[in-house]
Amino acid sequence: MGILVFLVLLVAATTALGMFKARVSAWALVLGGLLFIWQTGLFTGNPGFPLSSIWALLAWIPVGVLAALSVPEVRRQFFVTPAFNFLKKTLPKVSDTEQQALDAGTIGFDAEIFSGEPDWAKLRAVPPIVLTPDEQAFLDGPTEVLCGLIDDWQIRHAEREIPGEIWDFVKKHGFLGMLISKEHGGLGFSAQAQSLILGKIASRSPDVVTIVMVPNSLGPGELIEKYGTDAQKEHYLPRLARGDEVPCFSLTGPTSGSDAATMRDIGTVVKGKHDGRETLGIRLSWDKRYITLGPKATLVGLAFRLFDPDNLLGKGEDVGITVAMIPADHPGVNIGRRHLPSGAAFPNGPNWGNDVFIPIDWIIGGEAMAGQGWRMLMECLAAGRAISLPSSATAGAKAMLRVTSAYARIRRQFGLPIGRMEGIDEPLARIVETAYVNEAARAVTASMVTRGERPSVISALMKYQTTERLRRAVNDAMDIHGGRAICDGPSNYLQSAYEMVPVGITVEGANILTRTLITFAQGALRSHPYLIREIQAAQNPDAAQGLEAFEDLFLDHIGHTISNMSGAFFHNVTLGYFAPAPAEVGDLKVHYRQLSRAARNFAVVADFTIAFLGGGLKTKQKLTGRLADALAEIYLTACVLKRFEDDGRPAADRPIVDMAVANGLARFDEALHGVVMNFPVAPARWKLRAIVFPLGRHFDPAPDPLGSTVAGLVLRPGEVRDRLTRHIYVSHDPADPTGVLEATFAKVAAAEDAEKKLEKAIRAGNVRRYHGIDWIGDAVTQGVLTETEGTLLREVEALVARVIAVDHFDPAELKPNYANIGHNVRATEPPSAVE
Predict the structure, then answer these.
(1) pLDDT at 826
(2) Alpha carbons 377 and 260: distance in angstroms, whole number
(3) How far apart are CA 15 and CA 590, in angstroms?
(4) 656-672 burial, b for 16+ CB within 10 Å, e for fewer?
């Protein structure tokens, strides 16, 4: 019994010491006191090992070691210095391009999660959705009008082209200059406004949103605004804002896709002639592909590696990645024909050049910015990746919810609306969850960017999570619609989303790369409270200075890790009951507590992963991918709680919030469990299991009845469905495929009671429903329905027939025009690629 009491006291004491980050001397004193009490039986009357035994002496060794380490000189010589020398060899090396990427973004709430003790007040303080009067007017005016002009079928199938009237409209109203300041002729809109405008267009046409998105994302406009010379700003920005120049940005090449920093496109600093006079310039050779807006561009932004063999710039031979602007009609520039990414209609294609001479002042930022291209790109991408694709993916999910909820109520099988069948309400509830979660995270992240943050880690997880969730939502929508969805034509409102989902998955860093390499592997370096500073200290050429800087960081890191280990174990055995939560959130405390518990567990596993894998972290991509998922689930779930509060805590939305939190925590649990169970170092794996999963898995997904409740919320018109699908384009035009869907949905809901009466009569055999029979007229004649109800159901029947109808064509209408399509590499690639 004595040993059991001792062990309980030992665990309790070490947990408390760890949680409160006690000094080494306190550890030695407390553990020594406990050991003395146990061995003497001072309070229990039941002594442990006799003081004279070998076991008693061995038990005092850890206490002696701790006591010795409390002496600074001893600690430095026998603990810190060996650790410093070891970590110099094992910590991951940070390349120049990686360092530029790390320095590009800002640290935000991701660092709170990595700390293991997130300050929820910081997230809750992020402003809710706020637009200026001008921004709101633009969203309600020109954006709404643009959406009404779009004929999706004509664009993506009949013409495979964005019509001239659409191009003219977006140029006239300044859509291409939302990022450009008013000072230079642009709209100067906030990131939140850009996100909502892009999202609204995306809900109508993925093709049209692409031509607006690219000039307002990574491209010459933003680069010139932030880094350009005064002359470049004065000349180009007004022209870009008016649409006089259509920009593209050429980064990706045949051999440099995800690993864009290894591009083979080169420029050499030389003297040459431009406009009839000799000038310092660059001779360029490049080969780019997948360039969005490339075939329509008048201004090519080009990334290349710059060399200066004669050191004419005074920056050495290898100057580094550089970005220049080149007019598309400049001699030697070749604009290729078009790719067809997923069969889409937005312009996308290759471009190339060989020994093309440009003046040195065509570098964005001029000569001073030569070699600074990668930093420029990473800084812009850190913000842009948080806006463009998350906004379109979020709008896509909301659009899927809008049309699928209506169709699931309109379409009947087995005598009832299909949305009320459990097999359908399960995927429908998933779509609801996706729309709610994506919008919650989109709004929070856009607000962060609006107030000046460049959240590189959060932007990466937002890009891959929102687009992956959209992929699932589109697939669920297709499944619920069945044959109605797979038959393409003017009335099919799902095909364009289905075709374009892979594009969002692939661009701006393919999701596989973003998940497995960027979000956690770079996120750990960027967001961890100690790691990057420890690496910098270890890599300091001056070993003495490095050791001095390293010592305090390393000791604080150890205390931080022990605190998280102790806290995680405590919260896991107490089921999170004592985990911190904001005082003012009321009954949401239970969710905040579990998120705090999850963050502690994440921080522990992240620290173990970094410590034991070190420089091999990037090769363990299954582990880093799961850790990225775990990080993302904490962030997204926290955004769900913030959205609920920002929306005024509407009671009708609470089931959605509870489901989203339960499923988010369950996915977090699955991801973290996968890391622990597959941890490659066995002793560390055993310890992690004991700390993180002492009582087994933590969280279960939302129960089935809750999912059914959530699905039922959107099967009727009303504020819940409208709130879930806010900020997208909703047509009420009966000639529009989605407009007639909205009208039918409202009419079906109004006719529900009459519909029930008719169905009851049909099941009873009193009314027969077959072609050639006027079953509604029979029901009215028999008194099953009133005349008014009969008229209403006839209107419903006509509308439903239109909604469930699919298009059909003559064979001649379906023959594609192959006149301008290349059938081999030589037709679409530069000669250098095939000769």
Answers:
(1) 38
(2) 11
(3) 23
(4) bbbbbbbbbbbbbbbbb
Helices (H), 574-703: 589-613, 621-646, 654-677, 682-692
The answer to whether the CB of 349 falls within 8 A of the CB of 292 is no
Beta-strand relationship, 334-335 and 348-359? antiparallel
CA distance 158 to 812: 13
Question: In the block, which residue shows the tokens 């962030």?
Answer: 635
Token output for 182: 């008013």
Mean pLDDT of 725-742: 96
What type of residue is 617?
L
Residue pair 643/593 in contact (Cβ under 8 Å)? The answer is no
Kindly indicate the confidence band of residue 496, based on its pLDDT and cuts at 50, 70 and 90. very high
Strands 299-307 and 318-327, sheet pairing: antiparallel
Helix (H) or strand (E) holding 28: helix 24-40
Q: What is the rounded average pLDDT of the residues 579-590?
A: 94
pLDDT at 831: 42
3-state percent helix, strand, coil for the chain, nearest multiple of 5: 65, 10, 30
Contacts of 277 (CB under 8 A, 6+ apart): none
In 375-494, beta strands by DSSP E? 412-413, 416-417
CB atoms within 10 A of CB 25: 13
Which structure tokens are listed for 645? 């509060």
- Spatial contact of 216 and 156, defined as CB atoms under 8 Å apart: no
Looking at this protein, which amino acid is placed at residue 17? Answer: L
Pairing of strands 299-307, 266-274: parallel
> DSSP strand E in 293-429: where?
299-307, 318-327, 334-335, 348-359, 412-413, 416-417
Measure Cα distances from 396 to 468, 474, 659, 718, 720 in Å: 12, 8, 21, 20, 18
CB 370 within 8 A of CB 178: no
| Closest to 639 (Cα-Cα) out of 432, 446, 835 | 446
For residues 781 and 562, give the distance between their C-alpha atoms in angstroms, rounded to a whole number: 80
Which SS3 state, helix, strand or coil, does residue 826 take?
helix
pLDDT of 34 reads: 67
**Cα 197 from Cα 212, distance rounded (Å):** 10
Condensed to tens digits (0 to 9), the pLDDT of residues 376-422 reads 888 887 788 899 999 999 999 999 999 999 999 999 998 899 999 99
**pLDDT tens-place string over residues 167-180:** 999 999 999 999 99
Residues tagged active-site: 508
Give me the pLDDT at residue 691, please: 94
Q: For the CA atoms of 348, 354, 359, 363, what is the dihedral angle to 10 degrees?
A: 40
